[in-house]
């Protein structure tokens, strides 16, 4: 635990001392512990928030994340479903449940069903739409994934998640020039760590080694722990 995390936890505990029966304060403490990778204390804080307010969708959603991290998928799914039942118009629990099913458990059809439920309750959600595209990609349905994600980009050029996935799928299809075009299509994304790394990969495959190295160095400068970019520089 670093100093910043320690100070954040201490501030949350002081807040709870002043407002011991405030669910939001316990939620905040749970989030602080979760970000510090202290899952046991995060779980305890969220349990306390739920005890104080059983219909607190955010606490149920958050403890779903804790269970996910603790490799307790059944408990995680129950928590996400409880959050959805309390407030079906929140994106977060649909996303969490879909990631649990699709990424952790490989149950792509069930994840798809969850995302369809979410989009039924929250039409036009870019986050859930992009997650649906990603779910198709993980299931090997690349063309369907691209249809969804390219449509998302047409609706919102600033959708960084969709742009990242489209670029990645273009790379997988060896459409390197298209990858460069889509990554460079939004200056903010192109300047990001993810954008610089993607541009580096695409330029490697295009034989543009100098451009590739420049992009990869920029990615590492933005995120020194980007070991994928570092490895590509070797």
Class of secondary structure makeup: mainly alpha
Helix amount, in percent? over 70%
Largest sheet: none
Distance between the termini: 32 Å
User: How much of the sequence is in beta strands?
Assistant: under 5%
Summarize the structure.
This protein is mainly alpha-helical.
Task: Report on the architecture of this protein.
- This protein is mainly α and 234 residues long.
- Helix content is 79%, strand content 0%.
- Helix 3 runs antiparallel to helix 4, helix 6 (91-104) packs antiparallel against helix 7 (108-121) and helix 10 (160-172) packs antiparallel against helix 11 (176-184).
- The model has no long low-confidence stretch (mean pLDDT 96).
List the helices and strands and how they pair.
Layout: H1 3-18, H2 23-35, H3 39-52, H4 57-69, H5 73-86, H6 91-104, H7 108-121, H8 126-138, H9 142-155, H10 160-172, H11 176-184, H12 187-190, H13 193-205, H14 209-222, H15 227-233
Which short descriptors sum up this protein?
globular; 79% helix; 15 helices; 234 residues; mainly alpha
């Amino acid at each position: 635990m670093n100093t910043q995390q320690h100070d954040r936890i201490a501030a949350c505990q002081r807040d709870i001392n002043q407002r011991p029966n405030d669910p939001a304060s316990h939620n905040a403490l749970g989030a602080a512990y979760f970000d510090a990778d202290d899952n046991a204390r995060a779980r305890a804080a969220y349990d306390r928030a739920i005890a104080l307010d059983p219909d607190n969708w955010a606490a149920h959603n958050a403890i779903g994340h804790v269970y996910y991290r603790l490799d307790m998928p059944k408990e995680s799914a129950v928590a996400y479903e409880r959050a959805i039942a309390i407030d079906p118009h929140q994106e977060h629990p649909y996303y969490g449940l879909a990631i649990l099913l699709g990424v952790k458990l490989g149950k792509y059809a069930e994840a798809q069903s969850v995302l369809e439920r979410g989009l039924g309750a929250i039409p036009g959600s870019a986050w859930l739409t992009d997650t649906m595209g990603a779910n198709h990609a993980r299931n090997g349905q690349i063309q369907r994934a691209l249809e969804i994600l390219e449509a998302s980009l047409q609706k919102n050029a600033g959708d960084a998640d969709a742009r990242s996935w489209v670029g990645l799928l273009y790379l997988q299809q060896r459409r390197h020039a298209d990858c460069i075009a889509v990554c460079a299509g939004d200056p903010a994304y192109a300047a990001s760590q993810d954008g610089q790394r993607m541009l580096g990969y695409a330029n490697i495959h295009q034989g543009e080694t100098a451009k590739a190295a420049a992009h990869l160095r920029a990615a590492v400068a933005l995120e020194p722990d980007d070991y994928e970019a570092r490895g590509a520089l070797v």
